[in-house]
Amino acid sequence: MERRADDSEVGVGPGPLSRIPEAARQAVLDAAAVLQVRRSEAAAQVARGELPDVVIVARGHQGINDWIREASTGWRELLSVRPGGTAAELRVTLPHNRVLVNAGLRMVSIFHRQGLEVDARVLLANEPVGTYLYGIAPVQMKIVDRRFVLLQGPVVDGESTVMTTTSAACLEAAWRYWQATLDSSFAAGSEGVGALGDLSPRQRQIVALLATGTGDAAIAVSLGVSVRTVRSDIAALLDLLGVKTRFAAGIRLQLWSDRSG
Q1: Where are the alpha helices (DSSP H) in 48-117?
Q2: For the residues of 109-135, what is the DSSP string, one character each?
Q3: What does the angle CA 91 – CA 93 – CA 96 come to, to the nearest 5 degrees?
Q4: So what's the pLDDT on residue 219?
């Protein structure tokens, strides 16, 4: 648990999801409803050019990813909530997040567990860099440096957009939603112990990537090591797991993830 300069705390709340009190669930849903109203109001006003403190910063899937990748290098703190995700998305974002965190970014990401693919949960459970949590997370948003919020913007020419806002109403609603979501959260890595606890962090990452069908070269790029190192690690962990093929190692991890769910 980490103490901030303003004496607030970023940590891990109750879990797993099935044990989250109904009051905590309802608090998230209530806060999410208010944020959605503020988001809709801001999106409608920015589309009409009526809100100077709301800006559409990117449009289209690739444009949004490119903007976040470039802009995030200057951020100091990122509090993120995502309703779901795929393994393909995480194979792109996790390496980028590692670079940012290692460079000093304070990042906490909360995912709605049921909105994640099984392969995505495997990757998050075995990711050693960054703080990844599961919780009740119905609305996607990011709070950056506690100064502005990233929210889904209006559809422009048939493309989705992302908007930033410093609106006091949006910031207040986003912060209340963040706190409620955090209170419903638990560590994604808590599903990664058990039989795999004897593996090193990098070995667990490799097994997780194998479980999602990632090849040796892509694993090497993702982890920032050589292909030779990856193959050496794979040989060692196959022996550790008591299996003969990388496919069997990946299946073992997927079966474990299914049981933990």
Answers
A1: 61-71, 87-102
A2: EEEEGGGB-HHHHHHHHT--SSEEEEE
A3: 115
A4: 84
Task: State the burial class of residue 112 (Cβ atoms within 10 Å of its Cβ: 0-12, 13-18, 19+).
Answer: buried
Distance CA(206)–CA(127), nearest Å, equals 10
In this predicted structure, the answer to whether residue 254 has a pLDDT above a threshold of 70 is no
Q: What is the dihedral sign for C-alpha 149, 151, 153, 159? A: positive
Q: Per-residue pLDDT for 195 more than 70?
A: no
Reduced to 3 states (helix: H, G, I; strand: E, B; else coil), residue 52 is coil
Q: Which tokens go with 258? A: 């299914």
Q: Residue 255: what are its φ and ψ, rounded to 5°?
A: -65, -40
pLDDT for 229-251, tens place per residue?
A: 888 888 887 777 777 787 777 67
Pairing of strands 77-82, 54-59: unpaired
Amino acid identity of residue 11, one-letter, is G
